[in-house]
Amino acid sequence: MSKQPTIARIWRGRVRRERADEYEKYNYDVGIAPLIEKALGVQTFREDREHESEFMTISYWEDIPAMARFTGRDPTDIHHLDRDPEFLIELPKSVQIIRLLTSHGKTG
């Protein structure tokens, strides 16, 4: 029986618009690719605005202990990638952890 997600972890960060493409590649290579190997699912989003782009990553987990096994510490703590200070307009201070109540339709 496959594991079902009960928790979603949401991270958001903003970069200057002119560096968005570069950050998107860096974020995938260093942050998202390892996450894909451990989470039950990962979705990434990008919203381009006039002067900035916002990135959002939602990862899905069986439970809080499963997230903790991946992070090696409290999964509610923010983890910055090495080059985040170079790219991000401001370093996020937190992530959002929410319970997944139900899922409808197909998102794959």
Chart the SSEs and their pairings.
Elements (H helix, E strand, L loop, with lengths): L6 E10 L3 H19 L2 E8 L3 E10 L2 H8 L12 H4 L8 E4 L9
Antiparallel strand pairs: 1-3, 1-4, 2-3
Describe the 3D structure.
This protein starts with 6 loop residues before the first strand and ends in a 9-residue tail after the last strand. The model has no long low-confidence stretch (mean pLDDT 91). It has 3 helices and 4 strands; from the N terminus they run E-H-E-E-H-H-E. The longest helix has 19 residues. It is globular. A hairpin with a 3-residue loop joins strand 2 and strand 3. It has a domain of 73 residues. With 108 residues, the protein is an alpha+beta fold. It comes from Reyranella soli. This is ABM domain-containing protein. InterPro entries: Dimeric_a/b-barrel (IPR011008).
Q: Beta fraction of the residues?
A: 25-35%
Number of separate strands: 4
Mean pLDDT: 91
What are the low-pLDDT stretches, counting only 5+ consecutive residues below 50? Answer: none
Tally of alpha and pi helices: 3
User: Which value, in Å, is the CA radius of gyration?
Assistant: 14 Å
List the helices and strands in order: EHEEHHE
Roughly how many Å apart are the termini?
19 Å
